[in-house]
Task: structure prediction
Amino acid sequence: MEAMSRVGTTYNIPPAPPDPDSTDWLDLGAVRIGVEYRKVDPAGLEEIYAGTEHLDELRETSPEGGFTDEGVSLHIVDPSDGFEHIRFDMFLDEPHYHYVDKAAGTNTLVHFDIVAHGAMIPWTLTQLRTRLPEMLRHVGAAELAALVDATDGATLADAVEAKLRDIGELS
Result:
């Protein structure tokens, strides 16, 4: 089931989990960030959600022909329980990000406006530097947000930026 929120479309289906074989984890301050280059396709999504209560919602909400895209994903995780609260999918065709509300069991997908914001990677790095506590509070992770300070944001963004350069996503 989907509902419009102030900032995007909210679903009951969680985002596909990171692939452990394709994700490099950075443990930085209060948060853990996974950096993953992902290729998403309808068959892969069907496989991920097969046998779950989310498969019907995936089928109902996917575009005709299914969702296919690729690019870097950043998984913003609480290291105390491994829960992913925010994801930035810096995809080639449909860049977007997710707010995952643990208490509500929802996933709000926000389409990224490249006309207004430019390229998503620099925008994402800016959000890590300047807005991460606000984004965590928005998704109901106030306790985690309280542990993130301005220095953490800069440290996180610098580490992610270095990783993106290492994997060839930034020049």
Summary: Residues 2-166 form one domain. Residues 30 and 144 are 7 Å apart (CA to CA).
